[in-house]
Each structure stands twice: as structure tokens, then as C-alpha cells.
User: What shape does this take?
Amino acid sequence: MIEGGPAVSRRGRRVLLLALVAVGGLAGACYPNPDELRNGSGGSCQSPGSTCSLNSECCQSGTGVNEGAFCIEQTGLCHATCTLNDDCVSNCCVPVTGETLGACMSASFCGLAGVGDPCSSGSECASGSCDGWCQESCSAADALCESAPGTLRNVQGFYNWCFDTSSGAACFPGCSTNSDCTVYGAAYTCQSGPDVTGVTAKACSL
Assistant: This one.
């Protein structure tokens, strides 16, 4: 379980005590995508990812909200509660001041890299998968390859692209020239081809 800190702000929003983020299995934070965690209550409360000023405004049940939600002061948004990184879309659960449950936040809150960012091991990635860059599967129906929820570009400043591979479609970091790909490994070059939707794109590959 997450051990929270001591206080709640005067406006009733929970304050993330980032200094007490656990180092082990709770070393991350995840931010629920409002499109994926939409509450089915007909709009009588604010779903995760929606703006808020008080906890009471956030949906405490519904799709994507298993054990309630907090209104987090740092973002001004409703965030689903969590106890483990795996509970969250971004694989990152941050402790909340004065609470036993944490809040799902964006991977940046706990230093996890996004899709298309350079990495050396899966533990560095919000997706949990690394092979030169933080990887994630994709499809023609889900080809956006966001680096993180709400963030289209990776840390190198390029869009990621969804390409077919022998083991299924996966996200590849975009590029303009070969030099843009050396950060992922000396063997990678900038190659051009159609992505899963038929759009011609340039991405780093072997």
C-alpha cells in the first residue's frame, strides 16, 4: 500500500507528496487518458482527466474509476486512485498527501520515459518495454503512437509512427536524417515507408 503524507489543501484538493514516491513497485505515476477512462454516469460528475477544484466534483465510480478519484492540485484535474503502477494507464502511481491510495498521473511525474524515447531497459519506460526506445504495440485502428497520454511527440521532438513488423504492428520514433537515429543505437538509420494507415512516414529502424 502507498503511505500518504499529512495534509489536504484548503480548497479540498489532494496534494501530491512527490518527495515520498516509493522507489520499488510504486515508483511511478500514471495519468488516465480521459478518452479511455470515460465515466458512464451521464455527466453528473467529472471523469478522470477533466478539470476540477474539489474532490467532490470527481466521479467516485464508473468506467476507469475502481476505487474513487482525487482532484489533484498540481494539475487541476480528476485522477483515478491507485495502489500499484499496474493500476494506471501510464504504469505510474504517485502517493497523495494524507491518503492511503495514490493517484494515477502522467509518466513524467515519476521520471518514466514515453514511447519513442531512448532507453536501455524496460524499467525506464512507462510502457515497460524497451528495445533502443520505449516501445508499444499499435494497430491501424490505434495508430497514434502517443509518447504519453496527451503528448504526441517523443523526447527527441519527433512524432512516433505505427509500422507493421514480423511480430505485429509497433510504434517507431520518427526522424528526418540518419543522425536523428544514432541516439537509439549506431546501427539505426532513418528509413521511409508506408505506416499501417498507408501514410508515408520516416522512422528509425535497423
User: Anything to note?
Assistant: Residues 1-42 have pLDDT under 50 and may be disordered. The chain has two domains: 1-112, 122-205. The chain has no helices and eight strands.
